[in-house]
Amino acid sequence: MLYSLARPILFSLEPETAHRVTLRLAGLASILPKKKLIAPVRVMGIDFPNPIGAAAGLDKHAEHVDALAALGFGYLELGGVTPRPQPGNDRPRLFRVADANAIINRFGFNSVGVEAFTENLKRARSKAVIGVNLGKNRDTPIEHVAEDYEHSMEVLYPHVHYLTINVSSPNTKDLRTLQSASMLDRLLKRMTQKREALRERYGKNVALVLKISPDIDEAAIRDIADVVRRERVDALIATNTTVSREAVATLRFGNEEGGLSGAPLREQATRVLRAFSSLLQNEIPLIGSGGIMSGADARERFAAGASLVQLYSGLVYRGPDLISECVSAYRAK
Fold first, then answer.
1. Catalytic residue flag (residue 12)
2. CA-CA distance, 262 to 97, in Å (whole number)?
3. Annotated catalytic residue, options 30, 152, 168, 169
């Protein structure tokens, strides 16, 4: 109800400014009693109070952990974060395609860097389940990307429950080439070896998650399924944003460069999720993301094989009531 009153004001602001203002308002609201939306689920060896999470991109710098946790999320995926600070792409880089309940972003991994990010995370009071989305620096050659991920993993490992290897952002040159079977196999071998060393050092396990693109065909889906099964990745997020403009090409801002999220992504993301579910047969948990705008959309992802789901664009258009709606949909599935 409160969000429906605030939304016209927020939508009158430039989108990136509105995003920042919204998070600050959520911070003020976090002094109120925290919403406790209980629908427990155990995935990747982690106990989640409910299966509805904040997707990467909502809190890129780990500055709003307590505010987001107070909204009732079962977990938070923060970031993406890069090893070294970088500004990302020039503004404007975030666009509302309001006629389609969609968003286009081309942030390009704007990041405070993993050291500053970790200090922000350590200041959070919340005991939320935390995942962090890892990206590479713009000037890191693609053949050295594993070194970027390894550095961030080492810094973050003591402070998180899971880490997501992002090979699917459309806003970083050549990143999606890492989804090819040979490159992905080499990368995940490095990541699992690094995780084993850190597990021994810290005496705790941090799950490894892979986030993939919706813009892949059946052959690529089969190849990725084979690699994640072989390398024993702990979970797979389906999906990131799409470069397709089929549903929005005639709309204002519809042809801006970047990744498209929101309602037009729903069908495509669900198709990819369902395909992985059919191939993996519950061997590896799946996390549904992309175009979840209602409780019914969340229920569809659970039915398609997701153990957890994540929200971003739906919050922009629906507000925080979407979280409890999705938790209720999970309970009723």
1. no
2. 9
3. 169
